[in-house]
Amino acid sequence: MDRKNFEINPLIKDFESYIDKVDDAIKQELELYSASEFFEPLQYSLEGGKRIRPLILILSAESVGKCDENAYSASCAVEFLHTESVIHDDIIDNEILRRRKDPFHIKYGYNTSIITGDFVLGLILNISSRLDNARIGRELAITAMMMSEGEMIETRLETSEDVTFDDYVKVMEYKTATAFEAAAKIGAILGDGTEEQILALAEYGKNMGIAYQIRDDLQDWNNEDKLFNTLIKKSSDPRIVFDRMDAMLNDYSKKAKTALRKINDGPARTRLESLLDLTMLSV
User: To which protein family does this belong (predicted)?
Assistant: First the structure.
């Protein structure tokens, strides 16, 4: 295993075979557009991702039944949706570094970044049409809309002096947790899970997504552009904010694990638990 790859993606050690399969599926999807102007930029944008959302989808499918080619195609769709949001978020946040390399807009410029985001949505629609499942298409559509809504809410709150913890959680739910929830839910649907299992895995994904974002913000707390930083600034004692964040992290992590109790015990459920533990330690 390449040490450099492990440092970039600490999930490789425990989920290497799954990540390899997801990467192969992504490569196959991109090959469909090898003659496109977007082919090389898309390859660049998809290099180095942790593939957490695809992993959640694949493991959710396995945990309730089958994991076939459709699940891997769907995993590409959720990763493409994440990629599209990263491209646009990096422009909004004026990022100068992403996965130890230039963000997309610095590498290719603003115009290409905006148009590529549009093209990626086309890729997602194409995959959705092949899956031929209206419920999955609806989940992807709702997720895309909620992620955009979250970005708009965050943009508004950045100039507000009345940001609350409830506002902060709402932004996390919309921008981050909704994609985790959709990944788990789509996986459960493709795995032919029962409605109870689908809802349980959706709850796992949602709570894991919030915990994931809290951990990320705690590790990057000195970033002036983070909404979390606004809460610190307005607090009379920043330690109170950090203590509350730690408590919230533990609470949402426990909720995610509790949701998995409705899933039959087995290797896939164990891997979902391990994925939660690993992402909480190594985001």
Answer: Belongs to the FPP/GGPP synthase family.
Q: Name which of 101, 103, 97 is nearest 220 in CA terms.
A: 97
pLDDT for position 223: 63
CB 73 within 8 A of CB 25: yes
What pLDDT, on a 0 to 100 scale, did the predictor assign at position 97? 64
Question: Terminal CA-to-CA distance of the chain, rounded, Å?
Answer: 20
Positions in the chain whose pLDDT score sits under 50: 1-8, 283
Number of Cβ within 10 Å of residue 120's Cβ equals 23
Q: Which structural domains are found in the chain, ordered by start?
A: 10-281 (1.10.600.10)
Q: What is the C-alpha to C-alpha distance for residues 145 and 232, in angstroms, rounded to an integer?
A: 29
| CA pair distance 118, 31, nearest whole angstrom | 18
Query: For the segment 218-263, what is each residue's pLDDT rounded down to a tens digit?
Result: 887 766 567 777 888 888 888 888 899 999 999 999 999 999 999 9
d(CA 61, CA 186): 8
Contacts of 19 (CB under 8 A, 6+ apart): 9, 11, 12, 51, 55
